[in-house]
Amino acid sequence: MFDSRFTGFGIRELGIGKPMSKKTALSVKDLSVVFDDENNSIHALENISFNIRAREFVCFLGPSGSGKTTLLRLIANLIKPTTGEVNFMFGHPPKIGMVFQQPNLMPWRSVLDNIKLPLELENDVHAHEKALDMIRLVGLTGFEDSLPRDLSGGMAQRVGLARGLIHDPDLLLLDEPFASLDALTRERMWTELSNIWQAKQKTVIMVTHSINESLFLADRVFVLTQRPGKIKLDMPVDLPRPRKDDIRYTSQFGKLAKKLRSAIE
Amino acid sequence: MPRPYEKIMKTSLSRLLGILSILLFIPLWELIVRASNLPKFILPSPMDVWTRFLKSLNDGSLLYHTSITFFEVLLGLLAGTLFATIVGYMLAKSKTLEKILSPYLVASQAIPVVAIAPLLVIWLGDGILSKVVICALIVFFPVLINTIVGVRAVSSPLYDLMNSLGANRLQILLKLEIPASLPVLLGGLRIGATLSVIGAIVGELVSADRGLGFLLQLGDFQYDTSMVFVAVFMLIALALLLYGMVTLLERRFLRWMK
Ligand SMILES: Nc1ncnc2c1ncn2[C@@H]1O[C@H](COP(=O)(O)OP(=O)(O)OP(=O)(O)O)[C@@H](O)[C@H]1O
Ligand SMILES: [Mg+2]
Asked: Is the ipTM of this complex over 0.90?
């Protein structure tokens, strides 16, 4: 299923050991965000501090409204924090691939052209071929020329995912990218994503509501509290890789899942 | 699944109805002429108008005057649209600029173009320029308003997308703002296109020695009512042509909206 031609890495490099390094890639310090409307102000995030290492895969869990999306938007520099700062230790600014909570496609562009967009902005001459490869990867072959209005929710989300990955970003910001997929597709996407992550050595920050998903994918899981969002738990996931489907029946997985569940409630 | 032949049937049926209503208009007109028994210089019959049409077509005067008006309308429409989209874009992007300029814009709309047309003719002469400017003025406002509405309505998550990809201002304009606001913008152009014909005629009626407005006035002075009818029909044809051009643009660029 994993297409080594696409990533340019042989199978030999895959799945053995963790590609994470010791270098800090991103540091977030004393971050607070207050949204001010005319008559009320919403305290979305409070005193968030953490470091993420290069090539680390990090998940954020938390109740609805705890500021997860806000945190990703801060890291992508789409909004400014009220206090605190976000610092990147590599590439200024780093190349970002963002997958939004809603598919967020351009309704006037076909599937292919939506996926091509990041490469168009870089004037990549191989945009077309790369987009076709990406379409194959997310299982949308045959829908190249379809318009977003003709796609199901899950298909649209996969287009968004393909668009987030195509330009080979250093930092991937994923906002519940698999929420609207069926169980089978979702698990296939987990495998694809961890393959891409291991082969291409990206730093990934992913928001999810699924404990299983976070344990299947992440090196580290953060749990945020109710609004205003604070870090309640910072838990390393020391499960061996590659993680196969049946890892969820191991006692270690069960222990970590239990810890996360009690932190969320 | 929508069945294609049903769709074809439906559109050809509505087209048929349109043609039918136009065809019915002529015998109805003829009927009124015969029943009322009015003199020709008050209400000419369809045949009178047709004969007059052929005559002015043969001596070349009709094409000459029509092309003059068409040229004025086209230039005015282009200039008005260009100016309105640029100003509209700036207004959509800057609340301050909008606050400064909006009193003038609203005031300018309170003045009927007919009232300032003579002024413009005095200032700019009675050649083509004054007509183009009047035409542009009348086109300006609807296109301006639609540009502002269209640009303001661009989805903010798509701005997030473009910014997360490090897009520059020009890329955001070309790949997001223009395509996203095009439906509303073309709606403004549709209104502007029909109004632009009025603009040119108003200018020509004030003072001109050519164009369909001039022909209209000439017919009026000479009690050549058939000629007035011919000129009016040419104006309708011009407006329909422009309307059709906008429809073609919509077909070409808004296919994604079905
Ligand atoms: N631009 C904004 N202006 C005002 N308030 C905002 C804005 N963006 C987010 N908020 C508020 O900040 C809080 C956190 O929102 P956010 O979208 O980050 O939550 P979330 O954790 O992603 O929730 P969910 O799981 O439902 O997606 C919410 O109360 C939201 O209403
Ligand atoms: Mg969210």
From this structure: no
